[in-house]
Amino acid sequence: MSMNNRLPYRHFFAPGFSRGRMPANRPWRQKGLSLLEVLVAMGLGLILIAGATNLFIGSSQTFRTNESLSRMQEEARFALNRMQRDVRSAGFQGCAPAVENRVATAGNELQNLLFTELPLLGWEHAGTGPGQTSTIDDYEVGDADNWTSSAGLALPDELAGAVVNGTDVLVVAKVERSAASYTSEVEAGDPAAQPVNPGHNIGQGGVALVTDGNCTSGNLARNTNNSENALTFSSSGNTANGLSFPTNPASEIFHYQIRAYYVGLSDDQPALFSQRLDGADGTAAIELVRGVESMQVLYGEAGSNNAVVAEAYRPADEVTDWQNVVSARVALLMRSEAPASAELNTRVFNLLGTEINPSGGTPADPDGDRFMRLQAAQTLGLRNRLR
């Protein structure tokens, strides 16, 4: 065959092929995205990120809210239970039908009154009774003159300059049974150290309630011994040496305490404090619960000394006869440790009839803040009066 009769070279390619290009039925390789595709992908990604972020923020806010509420509820429950325990045992005198006070209380009207007559007493801050309003512009301690009591006593010196304005003060006189017992018989009026076993926690300067072995007599006397294995009642802290009756291993020994509850400041933040007022050594104020902005107290007063049902609840400056008080109502306003509310909190709280505006401004137009708050109240009965 001659060269002229041969087909052109290009005709030797299979159908669908041509010079300079791939077969038509072979898939194209991806080499990039169009601008529209990129924008759509970015938009979907941003929507997913925004949803995840919103879910995280919502979960975190819910966690902070629940944690703050749980903490406030737990601390309010602890504070009220602590006061309830003391109020319920107020006025207990052991098995003795009558108790003689031998503690030297000259010049201390509060101790003399609580040692001999009253198991419970209180002070009301001016302008915070039922039907009145109180605004917390700042946490400041006030002068003792800001508090009054119908018992006619001034605020105790130990509390002067320590109580936050707008809050009430509750004082309870109570005893705690000691496991200690006399190891031998002791004559009346003996000022020498008397061994006890096991040891006691009354401490030097503390007050003991001691009954005789027959439960016919009882004495309040200040311990002048610094040993936990002995008790001494000398005239250095009492009206006379020893006790007015002989004691023996069958005698009962109690630790007598006067304890005040009030709202004070801890690192410029409000907190509930407890402080002993019976003159014992080492009885500085103890912080119980932080975040208590206000405490309001009303006293349930019966119609007579023999009645056991409160006819009316009155503030401390309106109680007619403290001997007839059979219960106390205590209300606390708790605040979260840090701002935890997603919205501005402008709520005004009613604590036993007193309007409390905790965020400044006026009750009609509160400033508001982002702290969470909770109010708790409980009625505490004096068991030794409810019989």
Summarize the structure.
The protein is an alpha+beta fold. The chain is built from two helices and 19 strands.
Describe the structure.
The protein has one domain. The protein has two helices and 19 strands. With 387 residues, the protein is α+β, with helices and mostly antiparallel strands. It is elongated, with a radius of gyration of 38 Å. Mean pLDDT is 87; it is low at 9-13. Strand 17 and strand 18 form a beta hairpin. Strands 1, 2, 4, 5, 8, 9, 11, 12 and 13 form a nine-stranded mixed β-sheet that branches. Strands 15-14-16-19 form a four-stranded antiparallel β-sheet, with helices on one face.
Helical proportion? Answer: 10-25%
The major β-sheet equals: 9 strands, mixed
User: Strand-and-helix sequence, N→C?
Assistant: HEHEEEEEEEEEEEEEEEEEE
Number of DSSP E strands? 19
Keywords: Membrane, Transmembrane, Transmembrane helix
InterPro entries: N_methyl_site, PilW
Protein name: Prepilin-type N-terminal cleavage/methylation domain-containing protein
Organism: Natronospirillum operosum
